[in-house]
Amino acid sequence: MTQALEQRIYTCEEYLEFEMASEERHEYVNGEIRLMTGGTPDHNELAINLATLLKSALRGKPYRIFGADQRLWIPDRKLYTYPDLMVVEKPLQLQTGRTDTVINPCFIAEVLSKSTQDYDHGEKFSAYRTIESFREYLLIDQYSIHVEHYVKTSANQWLLSEYGDPNVTLSLSAFEAQLEIISLYENIEVDA
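Below the sequence we write its predicted structure tokens.
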């Protein structure tokens, strides 16, 4: 979840200066700076499980994996954000003039919480879809075994598949990898 700071419009430059001096992470949404709240232990475990599975599956392939501390710039929406996990195809592309802000993810995953699930499904996913290189989105529920998998099939068209069975293997298409749901939820106690 994010909380808005002082009600005023900030420039991108003001945000970046503010963010570099801050010990906390903030999103920048079309001139507004929002404090990002921390995650639960299960939220973090799911993100680490996914990163570990992807790191193994992508070893030796031309991709880089980034966690929640990596900033993403989405110029069409004037949005700086920190996805829970991103995969970027090499070569890494950075925002012009920056060494700390990527612009070319092909895959993004968000671990859902009660406070962010609407944002992750709606406004944030809408912003992600404006990224030319972006073609796959995973939403992972931390309270029950439920994964939503969106794959771009053509311009302006996305296919949704949902998984609730821990014994299913999900096929990622952006980089041809397999993801076992049971491995993703390892060490997570979910509601039955």
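The mean pLDDT is 93.
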